[in-house]
Fold:
Amino acid sequence: MINFTVGPVQMDQETRNIAAEQIPYFRTPEFSAIMKENEGLLCKFFDAPSGARVIFMTGSGTASMEGGIMNFFTSQDKVLVVNGGSFGHRFVELCQIHDVPFTEIKLELGQPITKETLSKFDNGGYTGMVLQLCETSSGVLFDMNLVGDFCKRNGIFLFVDAVSGFLADKVSMKEMHINAVITGSQKALSLPPSMSFSVLDEAAQKRCFENNVKSMYFNYADYLKNGERGQTPFTPAVGTLLQLNEKLRRIDSNGGIIAANEEARKRAEYFRSRIAHLPLKMFVSSEHASNCVTALSPTKIGVNAHKIFEIIKDEYGIWICPNAGDLAEKVFRVGHIGSISKEEIDKLIDVFDDLVKRELL
Amino acid sequence: MINFTVGPVQMDQETRNIAAEQIPYFRTPEFSAIMKENEGLLCKFFDAPSGARVIFMTGSGTASMEGGIMNFFTSQDKVLVVNGGSFGHRFVELCQIHDVPFTEIKLELGQPITKETLSKFDNGGYTGMVLQLCETSSGVLFDMNLVGDFCKRNGIFLFVDAVSGFLADKVSMKEMHINAVITGSQKALSLPPSMSFSVLDEAAQKRCFENNVKSMYFNYADYLKNGERGQTPFTPAVGTLLQLNEKLRRIDSNGGIIAANEEARKRAEYFRSRIAHLPLKMFVSSEHASNCVTALSPTKIGVNAHKIFEIIKDEYGIWICPNAGDLAEKVFRVGHIGSISKEEIDKLIDVFDDLVKRELL
Structure:
């Protein structure tokens, strides 16, 4: 099977080689040194300010979304939540669950965020803002420079979910005034699903230490304390952390984050240049599309997007990514993250062409 | 390195083969079928009553300890917590964090639970009880028949942490009147650390649906609903779940849980029979020792247990398991779970003999 979903994605051979090995015992100085290196390289690739630290969470991206809401905010905050799709909606639900007062900026699926939208909330007494870098359900990339400037001029704490965007799209904590940001193991890092990673600046760490979190597993203060000696409070997905180390070192020696972003951009552009002749419409305009995924609507009347996913899976041995919810029958997505070759993209285009020939698309 | 810790432990070659493969997309009927089979086999091996279900949690054993406390109990409960070591103490802390009223049964490290201890709490108005099957910090195995009888006659909901005990020591939900029980991926199942699994009888499920849990990631009602279609609410450690499936099927075709328990018993007995001549004292008497681990105290004055762990790691390429906390310098542990051969045990005994010869032990 070829995998064009947005996670788990295809792993590099180097990652698979480590996966095949035995997993070492981890309460050792040897493993601590690896963790310290992981922390340093993640801070470097997120362009984090000095003093930043990393929370290594064994759990999905949602675990770190929830951990962030619990540790960074309280009932004394007033948070702006951008809800531009199913992941934005998850932030809304998390604020509700944890009694964090919030105002929702509800966007249509795929709609970008604008200066005009944000300016309405200037001087609104907001203390926090949360949003996705890339709303994976539509593939829209939010303009984080715009958001960062807004947060800076309003003194707002900015928490960004870059679970699927990191490595594919540019994210700089310093330039974009981001206080805390997440990514996940099974997205562009192309490791097995099992962990998510949060980079916290000093202001974010301060919030963790001041906040009395009613949770053991999500108590970031405990993670920060254990992290000082390169450890986690609970047994992490040790194998994933070793694979992370190899991947981060490889990125570092292959041109770093700029080269990684550029590679993702080229891959997304190549795919998008190859679909122009097909009866598929990009759900998000090119200028606002993330490099991590392309959401597509079949333009021919009567074509069901979920059915296309099923046919491609069952008859061609390829996974594209179905949408959930309201748009399940209208939109499917093609991911560009993970170890995907040009030849594999060409193969997928051949499949689309064949479906057109068969009058199924 | 040879690994005699209690997790992560040595994986079987079959598990490593799967680890080396690409990880499939999982929102498919194909993966759902595997998950349904995982659920059925875990229920079978825990000897669960009909109607039992499984929560597949991406997170360490502690995640499922906390999830259990949050989902099974409320401030209206009155829970007995057996605190016989660092994992029992964790249950105490979890009840405190989540405002669950409790009474602590504090035992010395390694001390078994007795009929006399339990009888003091008969008719005490308790609604719940939580404890370890095997308190991994000492290796003591609690008499779960005794505990189950006590809970049954008092109408108490019994939640058992069998994270390290499952497969190594007998656990039967039916015979021991257990309502909910946990295990972890990196213990006797010998999979990579990343997941923990909770088996819930119908009473436990009812508590999850009635309880208004202030958490998204630990909302078991959501897991139970998604589980009906063989899915999880959030991206799980898909690779681990495929390895789990292969392992459970292999156990099933090799004599099932009885054979697995027997194999663990024999391995523990073999190790214990080989150390009789050494200046090491078993921290827990044989009759109360779990098959998953042996805690040992060096008997020679001046020998530091943590130093022994370090020497064996650095000079012999073997990990035994250090203790944390008060006993770090007095006790180390040797795990018997995972893919460990007789030859590897013999090698460890040779190392102990050599240390005696070098007058270090």
